[in-house]
Amino acid sequence: xxxxxxxxxxxxxxxxxxxxxxxxxxxxxxxxxxxxxxxxxxxxxxxxxxxxxxxxxxxxxxxxxxxxxxxxxxxxxxxxxxxxxxxxxxxxxxxxxxxxxxxxxxxxxxxxxxxxxxxxxxxxxxxxxxxxxxxxxxxxxxxxxxxxxxxxxxxxxxxxxxxxxxxxxxxxxxxxxxxxxxxxxxxxxxxxxxxxxxxxxxxxxxxxxxxxxxxxxxxxxxxxxxxxxxxxxxxxxxxxxxxxxxxxxxxxxxxxxxxxxxxxxxxxxxxxxxxxxxxxxxxxxxxxxxxxxxxxxxxxxxxxxxxxxxxxxxxxxxxxxxxxxxxxxxxxxxxxxxxxxxxxxxxxxxxxxxxxxxxxxxxxxxxxxxxxxxxxxxxxxxxxxxxxxxxxxxxxxxxxxxxxxxxxxxxxxxxxxxxxxxxxxxxxxxxxxxxxxxxxxxxxxxxxxxxxxxxxxxxxxxxxxxxxxxxxxxxxxxxxxxxxxxxxxxxxxxxxxxxxxx
Amino acid sequence: xxxxxxxxxxxxxxxxxxxxxxxxxxxxxxxxxxxxxxxxxxxxxxxxxxxxxxxxxxxxxxxxxxxxxxxxxxxxxxxxxxxxxxxxxxxxxxxxxxxxxxxxxxxxxxxxxxxxxxxxxxxxxxxxxxxxxxxxxxxxxxxxxxxxxxxxx
Lengths: 502, 153
Fold this sequence. Notes:
A: mainly alpha, two-stranded antiparallel ribbon, 22 helices, B: mainly alpha, 2 domains, 5 helices
């Protein structure tokens, strides 16, 4: 990092140490931890829910709170996985396997302490990675023109459809549906109204936030309402149990660092990067372990590695968002929408036009990470008790926050209708395994995709083959082709490999 | 029976989305394609329509081949709860401009509690009062957002 970078970071610390930003960071990590603890409502819905409250403050305050929620939810998710065997968050599913087994052996406190410290280290490594790679990649992205963006988005959509859920075709569909929704309203390129059916309300298009809250918030509330609730049994760890023994500490060091680095690079992948990182980390730790037979029976590596990975992945996924303005995961799509509501456009120019936002964010994340460590260790029993809160008490409150929150953004009943309709459709999408993340990212990236398509056509005077003369675009398109070929041939290759092995 | 209903519902749902794809294509043609040097407003949505229809057709084909799916959508009380929750959301939307957000928040919170089977009347009542108060303090006092006050205005 050059001296300019260090100066900017110090300035970032000065900015983040304001009462408003510290409070935003604290609220973000606290709410995030609670959301991570509670099964059901995930970070995306919560971030969308909290977004209207950040509008009164600056863009960096909003970004800090959003990132705090996402970060905190990764921390909190592990608590219920270990104590109750219920993942509070999708990225903590893997933690249940060995975390709960450790709890059954009376090592719940030690597991929680190691996860908290491991997540802190992973978060710090992730922030350092973002701090170093962010500006470098942001500089590189300045050479991107519309053809490069178009090629990159094709790659992102293909990866996203394949990595979100187990049905790539449904992922494609959802991307397409998202792109369509974003095309409703007056097209800014030629001021032509499309798919408005004569409605004034549709002229400005469909707002992102009601859609996100509907698909992630209302759909989840409806899902929880129709399911039968079974109260979990929570084991409360005593304070003296929080101290891991020497053997556990020694065994957790390497998985923490491996998980941190692995998670950071997984964060660069489109799709549910935090979830993917935990599965890869778990299988990696199992492979590297000298006692793989212990996995599934309470191996500390199987808890610490994946939990470190998901925390680091959050920071990794900030890179495409902040450097290219392209979100690769649903929570970062909400962040992008939030920044746009503050009239800040993330992308390569962010580092030139608004460096304060980036560096304040980095500094606040260091502080947030520390806050999470301080919050999580002594309050672990409290968070465990939150997991037992009945949805009958919680969901009515969250429903009302969704309703009033969406209405308050533009004082628009139309937006509330959009949210409810999106929620009902989202409920069915979930039931039929249609992934929601590609849809939401399609909505956010729709206008950018259309601009790239049309500007590329205009630059190349209609001859799209000229895109192959652009090295960066060609690289992205080649990667896309390679991925498609690999995806199609994978079942055949796998079958052949298994036959040969047999 | 549940399995068959689910299959039919899912297929029906996808068919509706497929029809949407055709509507997009049809309307895009009306907006005008322009030419490749200077694309018109209909070109991009046209490709989205095509992009939608192709995978939808394949998904329907796959569903037709594998009609046996997992458990049904709703259990005995699930559908009733789903409909009542949706109706309560609609109640908030319809009544809020007239009754004001505080009163409607109180009523709908109570309804949500009862739909979600929170037993007795005291707990739902206490939760409704505290939610309405919290919403007032948060939006009116802290955030200064001017929401319709209705009969309390």
